[in-house]
Design goal:
This protein has ten helices and six strands, in the order βαααααβαβααβαββα. By secondary structure, the chain is α/β, with parallel strands linked by helices.
């Protein structure tokens, strides 16, 4: 869905001391994967199918749905396909499967995962995505093999934007928050993680290949993961 919270402004470059980091937490949609798929799905494809179902213009369908999306922002319902399938009367998992060829990995994301593996960092995928959506994306991209564990927000019982999510996740994974890096394309997620005490926080300023870059006013920002690689690794990734 739309990444409405990204701030514009001057970019603050990240400075990562890898010897001080043991654990890397990575978001999926917009961070590792191109968010164009999700934006197109929720803002164009679902409204088109909804308009056919209810015999209304696509623009009217889009206006109705975007208003309903906003009502559950920053909650588990925001990305719950079962919830939205009931709400709109469509099988959203099937709709996602129909256009799964649009799912793509951001440039240099795999090189970064390889680097973390070589450096023996604990690597976790932490996503608000519904398990059904996650399964489609893992099957399409193959990125699941890199992670020590994949955690859906549904397992925690809260969205990542909610403050209590982070202590629950820390208890589950037993990471040292003073030696943990979180990379996400949602500022509200980073803000709640910061409130919990996570030491290293990075914002993805280019979540979608079809949208302009928007850096954070609060956190160091990257456009591509090659910015986090040592120069030698970055040159090899090009």
């Amino acid at each position: 869905m739309p990444n409405e919270q990204a701030a514009s402004g001057g970019k603050t470059a990240p400075h990562i001391s890898w010897d001080r980091i043991d654990t890397v937490l990575l978001d999926m949609d917009g961070t590792l994967l191109d968010k164009h798929f999700d934006d197109y799905f929720w803002e164009q494809y679902v409204p088109e199918q909804y308009s056919l179902l209810h015999d209304i213009p696509v623009e009217a369908a889009k206006e109705q749905l975007l208003a309903r999306y906003r009502q559950v922002q920053h909650t588990l319902d925001w990305s719950d396909l079962r919830y939205w399938s009931r709400e709109v009367g469509l099988d959203l998992l099937e709709l996602k499967r129909r256009i799964k060829q649009l799912i793509g990995v951001h440039p240099h994301a795999v090189e970064f995962l390889e680097y973390c593996l070589r450096c023996r960092k604990k690597l976790y995928l932490i996503t608000n995505a519904h398990p059904g959506s996650l399964a489609i994306k893992l099957e399409q991209t193959g990125i699941g093999v890199w992670f020590d564990r994949i955690v859906c927000a549904e397992e925690i019982g809260l969205a990542k934007e909610e403050t209590e999510f982070w202590p629950r996740l820390e208890h589950m994974l037993q990471f040292d928050k003073a030696r943990t890096l979180l990379v996400d394309d949602t500022e509200k997620v980073l803000l709640t993680a910061k409130a919990h005490g996570l030491a290293y926080l990075l914002f993805v300023a280019r979540p979608s290949s079809r949208q302009r870059t928007r850096s954070s006013l609060h956190f160091p920002s990257i456009e591509y993961f090659r910015e986090l690689l040592p120069r030698q690794d970055s040159n090899e990734a090009q």
